[in-house]
Amino acid sequence: MCEVALAVGEHARALVVASITRSEVRDQVCTAAQELAARLEPLLPKS
Question: Taking the CA of residue 19 as centre, how many other CA atoms within 13 Å lie in the half-sphere pointing to its CB?
Answer without folding.
Answer: 1
